Amino acid sequence: MSRRMRTYYYAVLGAIGGLLGWQISNLLGLSFTGNLYASEMIVGALIGVCVGFLIGGGEALINRTPARALRTGVLAAGLGLAAGAIGLPLGEMSFQSLGAGLLGRALGWGVFGVLIGLAEGFSGGSQAWKGALGGAVGGVLGGVLLEVARQRFGQALFGKAAGMILLGASVGALIALIVVLLSRAWLEVTSGKLKGAEFILDKFGKRNGPSAIVGSDALKADIVLPDPDISPQHALLSGDGMRFIIKDMSTSGTYLNARRVEQAELYDRSVLRLGNTEMVYHEKR
């Protein structure tokens, strides 16, 4: 997906996740045990799984790599489960002890957003702290909106549903927005099946940090391009703290500015071609 559309898609996916989590918990019964905090932990975990799965796997699914979407979605769902199980009881605890609904909800769902944001950072190309920051802001805002919705709507269940939709949308949108605003380097696909898609590279830029494999295999590559002329592991992108370096790993070749290279540095507006897919490298200094 493009960086401009990322916020929209994440907001929609987060809203759907919040609605699904509420619906599942409603069907099962909102009160699972006689213990308030144990019940809140279970409900929060259900909501966290749904929101985490959709946000975590959403980008890969939109980029038409369902196998990668499943893998990243499961990872994010696990973190979402922990996030909801911690966040909702914490919010309830704050609410009970402080007697301030907005403050309690904001605190609890801020924790939820942090962990969901971390999941996006681990599964995507952004640095984890950027996802966590966006998730924290989105969680706090979403917690406030959730509590306002619960108080404003006459019917408790309808208010809860509206609040969960707003919560999920807020967490998703703010994760994407913060990540996009703070991103320093990305690849824009300008031709091929994923034309218009953009891949954020920030977490691969540090010296001695993780590298990104570019290829066509969703289970072996970090940047997946569904192109039959691209090898499963076609090229390696790594950073030295200042620049990104592309290293060819294929038999068909990697081309930089129309010239075949074995290894080369990338500069702003450099044009990469792998198989029938062309990408432009962007960076902000």
SSE topology sketch:
Blueprint: H1 3-28, H2 36-62, H3 66-98, H4 101-123, H5 128-152, H6 156-182, E1 185-191, E2 198-200, E3 212-215, E4 223-224, E5 235-239, E6 244-248, E7 254-256, E8 259-261, E9 263-266, E10 271-274, E11 277-283
Parallel strand pairs: 3-4
Antiparallel strand pairs: 1-2, 1-11, 3-5, 5-6, 6-9, 7-8, 7-10, 10-11
Helix pairs in contact: 1-2, 1-6, 2-3, 2-4, 3-4, 4-5, 4-6, 5-6
Can you give a write-up of this model?
The chain is an alpha+beta fold and 285 residues long. It has helices spanning 3-28, 36-62, 66-98, 101-123, 128-152, 156-182, and strands at 185-191, 198-200, 212-215, 223-224, 235-239, 244-248, 254-256, 259-261, 263-266, 271-274, 277-283. Strand 1 (185-191) and strand 2 form a beta hairpin. The longest helix is centred in the N-terminal third of the chain and has 33 residues, at 66-98. The chain is elongated.
- Order of strands, main sheet, comes to 2-1-11-10-7-8
Give the averaged pLDDT, no decimals.
84
Radius of gyration: 21 Å
Please tally the helical runs, counting DSSP H or I stretches of 4 or more residues.
6
Shape estimate: elongated
Q: Which blocks of ≥5 consecutive residues have pLDDT under 50?
A: none
Strand content: 15-25%
Quick recap:
The protein is of the alpha+beta class and 285 residues long.
